[in-house]
Specification:
The complex is a heterodimer. Chain A is mainly alpha-helical. Helix content of chain A is 77%, strand content 0%. The termini of chain A are close together. By secondary structure, chain B is α+β, with helices and mostly antiparallel strands. In chain B, β6 and β7 form a beta hairpin. The chains are: A mainly alpha, B alpha+beta.
Chain lengths: 336, 531
């Protein structure tokens, strides 16, 4: 197991360097000079332009800029935002818990609903329930997040008044961040009703963010289940007279889980992408909105640092997924 | 949680849970996060709303709802004969806020004013490089060239010496970058090794004290109980609920989760006006959207050709389609809320027939031109691509073939500065300081060529008028000069002036005393909430 773990970890290094290079290049490949964008309609003199170029270090060769960035990254220094002048690292960790909290809720919803839906659809293959579930999943998968979020807000917050429109907690409550997770901090604050308010604020954004992963997980579970259900050992199990619940739940589902876990791992990338829009609509103070704003402002340090950190998280989750394969299926870890 | 925060929490809770909840806390659904809280470091209106307008004061202030100036932290000022020396008498008994790291030991005085400007002006000032200061607005308003020295005459008197006479200087002193910071706080933070706190935990003399900020979520303020204007501010707490999406702001306003929202979607305005639970305030914005010809390139170096093209544009159609009614036709380069706006000028009529004949008279046939359409939305032009398409159709009617071009925003701004730029460009301007010079000199003066003067226009009679107005301190005389300049502009037509946007501000009915500010700031000092 240790060898398996180390070999997986080794593949991390080239990926990391690649991601660092891509995140550095990405923002610089976008057309648009950050200094000109900053000056806007007013414009600026050539003299002033040169002065600002020097200040931000854009006058040096790209290779030098990259080398400095890389050495900074290795030492844990991602630079400072051009806009707020605060360390990228600090900004990221102030905002990341909000994104993480939302993503965890979304993925829990997606797993709790998606896997049972996929199993039920597979067991009832071709029947009405299967078709209804799978077409709903297709709709969910193709839903434009922006439209879907606004629809939910208008119906549940506007017309019915069941949920708040946006934000993380009612403005009434005001306490310091301890963990950055509103559900936990609201409990710690001891203020009456704070937890309830935080939970209510999470409902709509979690549903919106969960929609696409939910659809993907349901479809993947169904097809993996179908494949496993046609295997000989399942027939044998049935022939032995095991109950269908035991056959489906224990024998089939466990073996169908490998592709499902892969999809859940990959969903983390989808969640990060979905978080950008979801956070913007629900005024959710997370890293999605932070990244978008920074791209528009051509805030190089934030874009490259933020991309790098997000990529690291996605890589980390996929590493965990790899390790889970090994746990679920011993053949995988022994082959390595 | 610090004591300050507990107290603040207590007061917010008390305010919201007591029967008079809404009478105490005003919630503003702002459109974005501020970049920081030291206004001199930034240029965005969103930042100014959260910092300079709520927390600070300036020597000179704009009268709310107008571009006229009035005394602020300076009780009065005098200008020397030669227009080179401005002496400000400061207001006594004005106190700075305190926070858990700082309590002022003295009232506001000349040291604070000197500190405020010298840190922006002098490269070797200890605060010059703090928080990556580029002092964009101070630079943009040419203050480094203009100001020769800032001198403390005595505790309550400050003298600015200029390198050249410049009448708009007083208006500049009312701008956000001129917000006065505490020199004592700056010293304390420098001594503590945390100079960046000046930007992160702001201390000012303004109507509201800063309580807390959570990026992309909420900013909290409480009323400054010692505010130097009696009876202000009128609410006890001010909260900015940061809500980037306009549709969501609208939902929050309807649901009562906020009292005031800026920047509604134009498409929602009709529904808002019909809603009894919302009052929609409106005013023309201090901006202008225009099409600038390149006046150095034939045939656009001929005023008659430019005039003819202007007559071919159906501006009303543009207002209806592009602005969806939330704009009005511009006949002058100055917006109507600006003093010295010349209302006597008549706009060129929309007359394609005459336009065509005029072009033929000038020997211009088979003309093909480029129109540059901006890739971004601005208040003065919500959809440049659509506007360019409408102009394309209009110009086709007078036999001019138009190709629409566009670039990424940074590229667009950069390339359009070139003296030999091929084509006319759609662009616009939003006023900085409520002074006509800020439009006419910046956008149409000879010095602005290859930069903010996108028409590359340099016309001696016009230039003489605006230069004279710049050095004249008598406002009546200046008004006269600017009125004449607008007449010349109209005759020479370096631009087709298209539109001024209308600013809409939806508020809940209990909001009293809110005034739309022509300079675009959102100010809550005089706002109260009815029971």
């Amino acid at each position: 197991m240790l060898r398996f773990f180390l070999s997986r970890l080794l593949t991390f290094i080239p990926t990391f360097i690649g991601v660092t290079l891509v995140s550095f290049a990405f923002i610089r490949l976008l057309p648009g000079d950050p200094i000109i964008v900053m000056a806007g309609e007013r414009g600026l003199t050539d003299e002033r332009y040169a002065e600002l170029q020097e200040k931000f270090g854009f006058d040096r060769p790209l290779a030098v800029q990259f080398w400095e960035y890389l050495t900074g990254v290795v030492q844990g220094d991602l630079g400072e935002s051009f806009v707020t002048n605060r360390p990228v690292w600090d900004e990221f960790f102030a905002l990341f818990p909000a994104t993480l909290e939302l993503s965890i809720c979304a993925i829990i919803i997606a797993i709790l609903l998606g896997i049972p839906a996929g199993v039920i659809a597979a067991v009832n293959r071709g029947k009405f329930f299967d078709r209804a579930l799978m077409s709903t999943a297709l709709v969910g998968y193709s839903m434009p997040i922006f439209w879907w979020a606004l629809l939910l807000i208008i119906v549940f917050s506007g017309n019915l008044g069941w949920t708040p429109v946006s934000g993380r907690i009612d403005l009434l409550y005001f306490f310091d961040d301890v963990t950055g997770f509103m559900l936990i901090d609201s409990l710690l604050s001891g203020q009456d009703g704070a937890f309830r308010s935080a939970a209510r604020h999470l409902i709509l954004p979690s549903i919106v963010l969960a929609t696409i992963p939910l659809a993907v997980i349901a479809r993947q579970t169904r097809s993996a289940m179908l494949e496993v259900l046609s295997e000989d050992y399942i027939r044998t199990a049935r022939a032995k007279g095991l109950s269908s619940g035991r056959v489906n739940g224990l024998h089939a589902l466990r073996n169908a889980m490998i592709p499902v876990i892969t999809v859940i791992g990959l969903s983390v990338g989808t969640l990060m992408a979905g978080a950008i829009l979801t956070e913007s609509i629900f005024s959710w103070p997370g890293i999605g909105k932070w990244m978008v704003d920074s791209i528009f402002r051509r805030d190089y340090p934030v874009v490259q640092g933020g991309l790098l950190l997000i990529a690291l998280i996605v890589m980390l989750v996929n590493l965990i997924v790899d390790l889970l394969y090994g746990l679920i299926n011993p053949r995988i870890r022994h082959r390595e | 949680m610090s004591l300050r925060q507990i107290l603040a929490t207590g007061s917010v809770l008390a305010a919201l849970t007591a029967g008079t909840a809404s009478a105490q806390t005003l919630v503003y659904c702002s459109e974005g996060s501020p970049e920081g809280f030291d206004p001199a470091l930034y240029t965005a209106g969103t930042t100014f709303d959260a910092s300079s307008q709520a927390i600070y004061n300036r020597l000179v202030e704009f009268k709310t709802g107008t571009t006229e100036t009035q005394p602020g932290l300076a009780e009065s000022w005098e200008v020397s004969e030669d227009g080179l020396e401005y002496t400000f008498k400061l207001r006594a008994g004005v106190q700075f806020h305190s926070n858990d790291q700082f309590t002022p030991t003295r009232d506001f005085n000349a040291d604070d004013v000197v500190f405020t400007f010298e840190r922006q002006r002098l490269d070797d000032h200890p605060y010059n490089a703090v928080s990556g200061g580029t002092w964009e607005y101070f630079e943009g308003m040419s203050m480094p060239d203009l100001v020769k020295s800032v001198e403390k005459v005595d505790d309550m008197t400050v003298k600015f010496v200029l390198n050249r006479p410049e009448a708009p200087f007083v208006a500049n002193m009312a701008m956000d970058f001129a917000s006065v910071l505490s020199a004592e706080y700056a010293d304390a933070m420098m001594a503590a090794g945390t100079p960046e706190m000046l930007n992160q935990a702001p201390i000012g003399t303004g109507p509201f004290t800063f309580v807390a900020y959570q990026k992309d979520a909420v900013i909290r303020y409480s009323a400054n109980a010692d505010y130097w204007v009696e009876g202000l501010p009128k609410v006890e707490n001010l909260v900015f609920a940061i809500t980037p999406d306009a549709s969501v702001r609208y939902q929050k306003l309807q649901a009562g989760e906020c009292h005031v929202m800026p920047y509604p979607n134009p498409a929602d305005i009709e529904a808002m006006k019909a809603d009894e639970g919302i009052n929609v305030l409106e005013q023309e914005g201090l901006n202008v959207g225009y099409l600038a010809y390149n006046t150095t390139v034939a045939p656009y170096d001929n005023a008659n050709v430019r005039k003819a093209l202007n007559m071919a544009i159906d501006k009303q159609a543009i207002i209806d389609v592009v602005f969806q009614g939330s704009g009005e036709i511009a006949k002058n380069p100055l917006p109507p809320t600006m003093w010295s706006y010349n209302d006597a000028i008549e706009d060129d009529p929309y007359d394609p027939e005459t336009a065509k004949a005029m072009l033929e008279d000038e020997g211009v046939t088979d003309l093909s031109m480029k129109i540059w359409a901006m890739p971004v939305q601005r208040p003065y032009n919500p959809n440049a691509r659509r506007m360019a398409e409408l102009m394309q159709e209009d110009f086709a009617k007078v036999g001019v073939d138009v190709e629409i071009v566009s670039y990424e925003w940074g590229e667009y701004l950069d390339r359009s500065r070139a003296l030999d730029r091929d084509g006319a460009i759609l662009l616009g301007w939003t006023g900085d300081n409520g002074d006509p010079d800020n439009f006419l000199a910046v956008l149409l003066g000879c010095d602005g060529r290859e930069n903010s003067n996108r028409a590359q226009w340099c016309y001696e009679p016009f230039e003489e008028l605006i230069q004279e107005a710049k050095v004249t301190t008598d406002q009546a005389k200046r008004t006269e000069l600017y009125e004449q300049a607008q007449v010349i502009f109209k005759e020479q037509a370096p631009w087709a002036t298209i539109a001024h946007s209308v600013v809409y501000m939806p508020v809940r009915p209990e909001v009293q005393g809110y005034q739309v500010h022509p300079l675009g700031s959102h100010i809550f000092t005089e706002v109260s909430l009815a029971e």
